[in-house]
Amino acid sequence: MNGTPRKNVLCVVGTRPEAIKMMPIIKALQTAPWANCRIVVTAQHRELLDQMFAFFDVEPHVDLNIMRANQSLVGVTARLLVEVASVLEAEKPAMVLAQGDTTTVLATALASFYLRIPFGHVEAGLRTHQLRSPFPEEGNRVLASHLAALHFAPTLAARNNLLAEALAPETIFVTGNPVIDALFMTLKRNEPIGVPLDPSRRMILVTAHRRDSFGEPIRNICRAIATLSERYGDVEFLWPVHPNPSVKPVVQSLVGGRPRVHLCQPLSYGSFVSALQRSYLVLTDSGGVQEEAPALGKPVLVMREESERPEAISAGVARLVGCAEEDILAETSRLLDDGGAYAAMSIGASPYGDGAAARRIVELLRCYLHDLKLQMEGQGFGAGATELAA
């Protein structure tokens, strides 16, 4: 910028979902003339994270490779705090960014706070208001919010959550969620799913991997799918099974080998987006899928007791069904049998973004780091977003 030194912005990424949502921001920073984008991976998801970086053709600058077999939350948090702090001291960034609610995010926010480096929280303000559900994510994101200098909230409801916790209004901006940016970028690639599906059948996409689903909940999900596969001959299931030992053996033992139930390895992001687009409806305990599926007009049945994404539920494009076998059966059957109910949930609108979140976030960073008035280009995302300029 006319000879002005570039500002170092350090992006910390630990898991596949974080990579998906950070990639549009990283890409935008890499082309911003004022920024020098540096990328650190903690590798909470080793193979899945590597796939994401290869898919988006991005190379990290520092790889902490933090995970160890059978380590505890306390152990991984302590290691992350020390390792991330060491990187921050070496890199000396003007700003640190991380997304979401993982242990990587909490450790990054805390290390930045200790070293007096501004921390920007992407996807800020999500809340279930139940500190132990989901665990540990709710606690992680609450703590990270109170350590952040800038909050990039995906929706007005997320902003209101932050205001209710007495965070400074002038630091909170409704940008939309960059997951929608990534989704639209990926749809253009039309990647093959890689699993043979019958085009004459309705396909239900299943994802289930959260810690809260371990044990009886995952068994209930499997039993419900087994019953549905017997009840509906015109339906098939695609379930990319998470490799976690609390998930994979259970799923394989209860639904493996059943007709029209396709269990596969976790799909690449491109293949997953294609599967999402091909699906009739989605059964999930995931957070990100609740954001992506509505943008493609796919009804989402959320197999959890609470959701930190109430906007989709309020809009009628997602429904909380819990993890009881009979409830999953009843709600899925309703959408398969009742065309009106299905049409009401498949309106093709997402309350989470319009595909321009990354541009807004990078513009806010530019203003913040150059001591300019904090405001977004254009009107921002969501009704009332223009009122958020400082």
Summarize the structure.
The chain is an alpha/beta fold and 390 residues long. The protein folds into two domains: 207 residues, Rossmann fold (3-Layer(aba) Sandwich), CATH 3.40.50; 144 residues, Rossmann fold, CATH 3.40.50.2000. Helix content is 42%, strand content 15%.
Radius of gyration: 21 Å
The top-level CATH class of the largest domain is Alpha Beta
Tell me the domain tally: 2
Largest sheet: 7 strands, parallel
CATH topology of the largest domain: Rossmann fold
Q: How far is the first residue's CA from the last residue's CA?
A: 24 Å
The percent range for helix content is: 40-55%
Architecture overview:
The protein has 390 residues and is an alpha/beta fold. It has 2 domains: 7-177 and 353-388, Glycogen Phosphorylase B (Rossmann fold), CATH 3.40.50.2000; 202-345, Rossmann fold (3-Layer(aba) Sandwich), CATH 3.40.50.2000. It is built from 15 helices and 13 strands. It has helices at residues 16-31, 46-55, 73-91, 103-114, 137-145, 156-164, 178-187, 216-231, 248-255, 269-278, 288-295, 310-314, 325-337, 339-345, 357-369, and strands at 7-13, 35-41, 62-63, 95-99, 119-122, 150-153, 172-174, 202-207, 235-240, 261-264, 281-284, 300-302, 318-320. The strands form 2 sheets. The chain has a 7-stranded parallel sheet with strand order 3-2-1-4-5-6-7, with helices on both faces. Strand 9, helix 9 and strand 10 form a beta-alpha-beta unit. The longest helix has 19 residues, at 73-91. The chain is globular, with a radius of gyration of 21 Å.
